């Protein structure tokens, strides 16, 4: 099981070993894996991870390839990201009780869970970029703009963010090189993981950004997947932008713990 010999992910030439951050007791009965988005890093989960740990969870978050302190490589295809995280298993083995993925992390979680159904018992996806078809140029342009983020620009666009979130986002963005971002977009766009998400045989919850804030996960996607998948639930988080865990960490915690999204 730990070797993932039956995984259907097409392994890249190099699978990198990811640096990990951990919160909570290693022997906790509930285990969560948190996957960050493009131009971010593991430390971005500090509030969500800390609250889950306080609620009795063991929490693990990696820097994904090309981000934070993770190794760099020549390719940044989604299959490579998924192949990197599949060897990550909870202390003591078995499935993750919960995998949370934001944006790119949501796609990586979907690809990994689809390839190895026993890897995760439940997915919580935060405004995941499940499909990119039209508007690729805008997606590319927006991603590359994030690399030059400053504390001033982030506070101007997101005055409600915690100062620690602002600091960590700038730090993570500056650790992500233009090569990594451009390589990721070149190797992947366009893409769609809607079929994989629909066919995943475990519960999935999606928290989307507010419709007024240009969500990556659309209402049309929610309706289509919900029509075909009984254990799928999604909601738009009022007032939240794409970075839901920064805008409204309480909504993410509530969904992770199985309570109502706020």
Automatic annotation (TrEMBL):
It holds the Pfam family Abhydrolase_6. InterPro entries: AB_hydrolase_1 (IPR000073), AB_hydrolase_fold (IPR029058), Carboxylesterase_BioH (IPR050228). GO terms for molecular function: catalytic activity. Residues 33-255 form the AB hydrolase-1 domain. This is AB hydrolase-1 domain-containing protein. It comes from Streptomyces scopuliridis RB72.
């Amino acid at each position: 099981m730990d070797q993932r010999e039956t995984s259907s992910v097409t392994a890249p030439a190099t699978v990198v070993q990811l640096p990990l951050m951990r919160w909570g007791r290693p022997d906790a009965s509930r285990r969560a894996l948190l996957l960050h988005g493009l131009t971010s890093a593991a430390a971005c989960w500090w509030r969500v991870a800390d609250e889950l740990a306080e609620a009795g969870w063991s929490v693990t978050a990696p820097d994904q390839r090309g981000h934070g302190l993770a190794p760099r490589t020549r390719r940044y295809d989604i299959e490579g990201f998924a192949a990197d995280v599949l060897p990550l298993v909870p202390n003591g083995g078995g499935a993750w009780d919960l995998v949370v993925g934001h944006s790119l992390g949501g796609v990586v979680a979907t690809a990994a869970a689809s390839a190895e159904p026993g890897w995760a018992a439940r997915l919580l996806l935060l405004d995941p970029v499940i499909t990119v078809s039209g508007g690729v140029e805008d997606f590319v342009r927006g991603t590359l703009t994030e690399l030059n983020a400053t504390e001033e620009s982030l506070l101007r666009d997101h005055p409600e963010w915690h100062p620690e979130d602002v600091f960590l986002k700038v730090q993570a963005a500056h650790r992500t090189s233009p090569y990594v971002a451009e390589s990721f977009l070149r190797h992947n766009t366009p893409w769609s993981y809607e079929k994989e998400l629909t066919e995943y045989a475990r519960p999935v919850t999606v928290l989307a950004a507010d419709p007024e804030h240009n969500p990556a996960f659309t209402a049309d996607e929610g309706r289509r997947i919900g029509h075909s998948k009984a254990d799928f639930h999604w909601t738009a988080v009022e007032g939240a932008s794409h970075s839901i865990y920064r805008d409204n960490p309480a909504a993410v915690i509530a969904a992770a713990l199985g309570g109502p999204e706020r």
